[in-house]
């Protein structure tokens, strides 16, 4: 069993190092190809695409979809619906204790809690 974890760790280390080396190689060559063209003012369509790719790598990354509230897919609407569903499942005492806990933790930023949550929609 221990050998399995050692092999798995070595495999992970190999792929991590390969990913870093390949990424560095790609960025180095994009940089060396683009920067002379950018500073001479002679860039074509291919260089413009190269700049876009280089900037996405260096600054933005390549994310799939939009990540909303807290870095999770779904955004604020998803979290609002989840919170309303949780509130409907709580007893009035639990709901009041939860609201007090949120107010003590977040203060004035924790507003908008409905006294009576809206019922969950059934599909």
Shape: flat
Q: Helical residue percent? A: 55-70%
Fraction in beta strands: under 5%
Structural class: mainly alpha
The helix count comes to 4
The biggest sheet amounts to: none
What is the H/E string? HHHH
**Which value, in Å, is the CA radius of gyration?**
25 Å
Spatial separation of the terminal alpha carbons: 46 Å
Mean pLDDT: 78
Low-confidence stretches: none
How many strand elements? 0
Brief digest:
It is built from 4 helices and no strands.
3D architecture notes:
This protein has 123 residues and is mainly α. The protein has a domain at 2-61. It is built from four helices and no strands. It has helices at 2-40, 45-60, 75-88, 92-106. α1 crosses α2. It is flat, with a radius of gyration of 25 Å. The mean pLDDT is 78.
Compile the SSE list and pairings.
Layout: H1 2-40, H2 45-60, H3 75-88, H4 92-106
Helix pairs in contact: 1-2
List keywords for this structure.
123 residues; mainly alpha; flat
